[in-house]
């Protein structure tokens, strides 16, 4: 675990590395905008049992650097580089799969077995030595599993995933029964236990970007009529809440639990901003410590928007919860990060693709 409660300072998806970074968009710390004193960015924030020194977060970004599912030297060097310069208040790792059937891509990191713990210990150690707490993002890809063509695809309902369909992939998953749901829930809990054993400060439950828990959350993919019904926010968030409660019971009150919510699909008939306050409230009641807002079946990129692409959704989350809310989406400079905080669109700011371009960016933003 991270040794200090007051830290020094310092999605992800397997598709992330396919994105082309627009150099103009990723230009950092514009000289004409960065001259103001950045007050909120440097303000500590209590999140669960941790006190983060800054409001900047490294969000999940898939590295695709492992062949056997285990943390290796390339992964350790990557996280060391991204956290060494200072400025970060928290790291959320790339998504790791909780069960082989939920593996998103061939080179994704595994949390599905106890053999993962030793590598996670090394990863937590590297990041902690750089003065930053770290939580492990745990995930099941559901119908977006593509690591093994022979693996049976499962989802909340037998519906072709719209995000895959947009890429020309039309695979019909099998609808999960209650035994499947219970088994997957247990896989999330076991992955969290492994994260705690490795010294991670917590976990983030991934419910975004078209993966399994997002499939439960979206009315487009959740056609169930049981207690996990897609007809109500309560039904669409039931599994996430069950996972949160189970992790809390096993891992204790000081283990940070975040939920990454794909808050809107930006598709006709999909999830929308009006659903978010209730979802956020339910996650808080279940025992979450933080909510991270991003896109749903639309993915993690929205074009032709100002920095903070999902800010109307993070603002909606704040309307339903007292928990800290993290916003990620196209934020590349201190001016816009501070502006979003001042406008109370979020409490924490994730800098992802810009950090891939410039490992020194967090320190630069904090110093302005």
In which range does the helix fraction lie? 25-40%
The total count of strands amounts to: 13
Kindly report the name of the CATH homologous superfamily: Aldolase class I
Element-level helix/strand string: EEEHEEHEEHEHEHHEHEHEHEHH
Low-confidence stretches are 4-36
Task: Explain how this protein is built.
This protein has helices at residues 73-83, 117-129, 162-165, 178-197, 212-217, 233-251, 276-286, 311-320, 334-342, 353-357, 361-367, and strands spanning 45-47, 50-52, 56-58, 90-97, 109-110, 134-139, 154-155, 174-175, 202-207, 256-262, 290-294, 325-328, 348-350. It is an alpha/beta fold and 368 residues long. The chain has a single domain (16-25, 41-322, 338-367), classed as TIM Barrel, CATH 3.20.20. It has an 8-stranded parallel β-barrel, surrounded by 6 helices. α1 (73-83) packs parallel to α2 (117-129) and α4 (178-197) packs parallel to α6 (233-251). The longest helix is centred in the middle third of the chain and has 20 residues, at 178-197. The model is unreliable at 4-36 (pLDDT under 50).
């Amino acid at each position: 675990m991270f040794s200090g409660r007051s830290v020094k300072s310092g999605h992800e998806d397997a598709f992330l590395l396919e994105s082309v970074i627009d150099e103009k968009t990723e230009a950092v710390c514009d000289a004409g905008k960065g001259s103001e004193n950045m007050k909120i960015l440097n303000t500590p924030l209590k999140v669960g049992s941790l006190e983060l020194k800054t409001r900047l977060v490294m969000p999940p970004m898939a590295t695709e650097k492992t062949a056997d599912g285990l943390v290796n030297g390339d992964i350790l060097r990557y996280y060391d580089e991204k956290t060494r310069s200072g400025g970060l208040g928290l790291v959320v790792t790339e998504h790791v799969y909780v069960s082989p059937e939920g593996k998103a891509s061939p080179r994704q990191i595994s949390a599905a077995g106890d053999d993962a713990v030793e590598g996670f210990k090394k990863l937590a150690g590297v990041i902690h030595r750089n003065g930053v707490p770290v939580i492990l993002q745990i995930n099941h890809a559901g119908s977006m599993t593509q690591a093994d063509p022979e693996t049976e695809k499962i989802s909340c309902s037998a519906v072709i995933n719209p995000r895959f369909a947009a890429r020309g992939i039309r695979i019909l998953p099998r609808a999960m029964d209650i035994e499947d749901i219970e088994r997957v829930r247990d896989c999330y809990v076991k992955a969290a236990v492994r994260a705690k054993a490795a010294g991670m400060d917590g976990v983030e439950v991934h419910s975004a970007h078209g993966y399994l828990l997002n499939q439960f959350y979206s009315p487009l993919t959740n056609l169930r009529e049981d207690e996990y019904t897609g007809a109500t926010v309560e039904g669409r968030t039931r599994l996430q809440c069950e996972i949160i409660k189970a992790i809390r019971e096993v891992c204790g009150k000081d283990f940070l639990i975040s939920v990454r919510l794909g808050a809107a699909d930006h598709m006709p008939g999909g999830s929308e901003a009006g659903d978010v306050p209730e979802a956020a409230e339910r996650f808080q009641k279940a025992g979450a410590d933080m909510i991270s807002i991003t896109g749903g079946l639309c993915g993690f990129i929205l074009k032709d928007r100002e920095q903070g692409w999902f800010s109307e959704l993070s603002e909606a989350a704040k309307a339903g919860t007292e928990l800290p809310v993290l916003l990620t989406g196209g934020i590349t400079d201190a001016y816009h990060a501070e502006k979003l905080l001042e406008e109370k669109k979020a409490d924490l700011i994730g800098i992802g693709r810009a950090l891939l371009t410039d490992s020194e960016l967090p320190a630069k933003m904090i110093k302005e």
